[in-house]
Amino acid sequence: MQAGAVRAEVPTWVFRLVERELYEYPISKQAVADYERDRQEILLASWHPEIPVDGGRLPDPTQRKATLLALHHMTYLKRKRIVDAIESVMRTLPADDQNLVRIRYWDHPDWDVETVARELVMSRSEFYRRRAHIVRLFAIRMGLV
């Protein structure tokens, strides 16, 4: 299958979105871990409010916990879904393709295509062909195509 044929199956906006998620994966993975840690701390914390609010009433500790969790939960769910999808696809990729993803998106995102291709010992056209196929797999797993 030619690179153009594979690329044509994924709309440009989807291709760019998937690449953005791949670039942001390390940050998203850390954000998911931070939320899960913070969630446990919030749930297990003993609240001892000292400052009355709303006309002298003390805040409800359960309401405070629920509010804190709700503020971050939707962002967490989105990031968790993306992190899980990326990790799922990475487990199925051959080692060479895993290496392409790591180098291009995580280890050296500032490298140009020629440098990445040279590091992977492949031509530019082979890099583009493999990248298109890999991005398509991520797009499918993320439910974007």
Account of the protein in words:
Helix 2 (12-44) crosses helix 3. With 145 residues, the chain is mainly alpha-helical. The chain has helices at residues 3-8, 12-44, 61-92, 95-107, 113-119, 124-141. It has one domain. The longest helix is centred in the first third of the chain and has 33 residues, at 12-44. The relative contact order is 0.17.
Short summary:
The chain is an all-alpha fold and 145 residues long. Helix content is 75%, strand content 0%.
| Average of pLDDT | 86
**Major sheet details:** none
The level of helicity is: over 70%
Could you tell me the number of beta strands?
Answer: 0
Global shape: elongated
User: What's the alpha carbon Rg, rounded to whole Å?
Assistant: 21 Å
Order of helices and strands: HHHHHH
Broad structural category = mainly alpha
Low-confidence stretches: 1-7
Tell me what portion of residues adopts beta-strand conformation.
under 5%
| Tally of individual helices | 6
The quaternary state of the protein chains shown equals single chain
